[in-house]
Amino acid sequence: MPRAGLTADRLVAAAAELADEAGSDGVTISALARRFGVKDASLYSHVKNLKDLRTRLALFVGGEMIDRIAPAVAGLAGKDALAAFAGAYREYALQHPGRYAAAQIRIDQDIAVDSAAMRRTAEITHGMLRAYGLAEPDLTDAIRLLRSTFHGYCALEAGGSFGAPRDVQRSWEKAIDALHTALTHWPREASGEA
Questions:
Q1: What are this entry's molecular-function GO terms (predicted)?
Q2: Which of 13, 46, 84, 112 could lock onto 72 through a cystine, CB 3.0 to 4.6 A?
């Protein structure tokens, strides 16, 4: 029988807080149960297992991120939209490193398709890239380039890996300039392959 007051949504919100406090690896069923002062078994009425909890957490974080990115890019196009999207992404990743790390898992496609946050993320990302006139398969390739650049930069920055005296913000701005140039002069592939 579910414990009064516990819901899947409350567990996921607490897991997000725990991720920021203890890192994404610190999000476990046991740690979450301790947070609520219950036995581990009490949580299984709300989440199936650790994988289910971590998937729900990743989707929750994806929703938080796109809720920050969407207003940042609203009304913008081209390089301005790219810079706003990237800036909101980076800000979230640096402010919430545990949550951000928890979102870097592969989500089952059936679950992703049903996720409003994932659909909204795809819509906002495609909208931001619309000014570059990319079609599939180039659109997927461009999205992969952006995600890997944003993620790599944020991971290195969060880990203190940029040791050169060059200002990290200036390097970020140059990276956005380079991405804009790459997207503007994208080597287009014939459409048809998805």
A1: DNA-binding transcription factor activity; transcription cis-regulatory region binding
A2: 84
Q: What own/partner pairs with CB < 8 Å and gap ≥ 24 does 89-95 have? A: 89/65, 89/150, 89/154, 90/150, 90/153, 90/154, 90/157, 90/172, 92/64, 92/65, 92/68, 93/150, 93/151, 93/154, 93/158, 94/154, 94/157, 94/158
Q: Which two tokens stand for residue 158?
A: 């969060």
In the block, residue with structure tokens 């599939």: 136
Q: How far apart are CA 123 and CA 119, in angstroms?
A: 6
Q: What share of the chain is helix, strand, coil (3-state, %, to 5)?
A: 75, 0, 25
For the record, the structure tokens of 194 come out as 């998805």
CB atoms within 10 A of CB 40: 13
Note the pLDDT tens digit of each residue in 57-92.
999 999 999 999 999 999 999 999 999 999 999 999
For domain 59-184, say whether CATH 1.10.357.10 is its number: yes
In the block, tokens 């999205």 appear at 143
C-beta of residue 54 within 8 angstroms of C-beta of residue 102: yes
